[in-house]
């Protein structure tokens, strides 16, 4: 063949390889790319077989990813780095042209009756990623020109494969980020606590659904707005200054305040301010807002009820103690008044004593009347709904202690009770369980209705339990097992007293595994109006 003809063929092949490189660079799907590389090796070079093996993640072996003209058993068998012709090409990063495989002791069988083999490394960005290999049943089937041309194709293929891998990984990462973003958005939309974020200029960058409900400002209006413009009172409340400190120091802040909302209504709130970081740099702040107005009001009612109950008992005790000597004085005065040998002054003194005794007796009667049970406002109530309201109010306290609550609510008939007093009972029992368990405890709340009998509400915890000797004492007034001095000893006493007013009972027993179970029973007649 003349040199001119050879030059023309090389020029033609060179142009073809340029077109091939452009085509491969445009393919981003890895499977389609590998298939196209094999098709080009057949169309351009007229090879009867070809196989692409890529390095495994640990870089220790070559694994087949695409092939034609090879048996499945051959393609499924991995090749160690440095093993056989392909293993050497991958290990040393250079082509291997074997004209007579009978003289190659380390040949790994490929096609049937193979006599020659050409293996070129796949190198992308100065890194070996695999091997492109062809074989023939004829000796000296491949020339040095074939080796050069296949090396060029392998170089283009390696860059295309590496790009396709990067594109695949990027798509996977983007998909994972999108999934994580959607999950975070769902979480922020579902929680009952308000959450929003601001940038370093205190412009709002996110606003969850609960924040919209608390503030009565939709996200569309809030996002992008300067925080101080949306809430002018934040400066005088000190929140804006706290946020600036969080942004400057990168440290979280906690505060509790009385906040005046957009409607002018004062709301008691807890706020947690945390730095929003990108690596080590603080790029904004996260603000968690919890409205605890209703919880504090109900808690204050519970505390006030305990205080009133304590005052009532003290009043009753004092009244009884005063009545005893008053009875003696009154009896003695009545005896003295039966005599008629007193002068006018003595008679007046006895009558005054009698009048004052009557006045004191009337006063003690009023004290005894005050200390008696007060009738609340009764209405038809679904105890399951009452429990749900209480759990919503206590959600922050339960989450803070990482308490798991399981609910097993049966369908209950409506009962005619004072709903607020039963809320106090449920809050008291749940908070007692939380205090007894500490962090990471579990509370199982269940309801049951037995026709012809009554309703049952049970609170079972995983705390240390109540010793048998104290199972009745804990319901006595002023008895408390708390050693920190925070208990008044009236909580369980009031709970049992309220339940008893409905001819029900409150008792404690051991939980099936560990802990305590407090059970409230209300007779079926509570359904009557």
Can you walk me through this structure?
By secondary structure, the chain is α+β, with helices and mostly antiparallel strands. It has helices at 3-25, 30-43, 72-76, 84-92, 144-190, 209-215, 219-222, 227-230, 234-237, 239-249, 293-337, 344-371, 383-393, 395-400, 419-437, 491-500; strands at residues 50-55, 61-68, 79-80, 96-98, 116-124, 127-136, 194-199, 204-207, 253-260, 266-278, 281-291, 379-381, 404-408, 415-417, 442-450, 454-461, 505-510, 516-523. The strands form 4 sheets. It has a 6-stranded antiparallel β-sheet, sandwiched between helices. Strands 8-7-11-10-9 form a 5-stranded antiparallel β-sheet, with helices on both faces. The chain starts with a helix and ends in a 6-residue tail after the last strand.
Short description:
The protein is an alpha+beta fold. Helix content is 47%, strand content 23%.
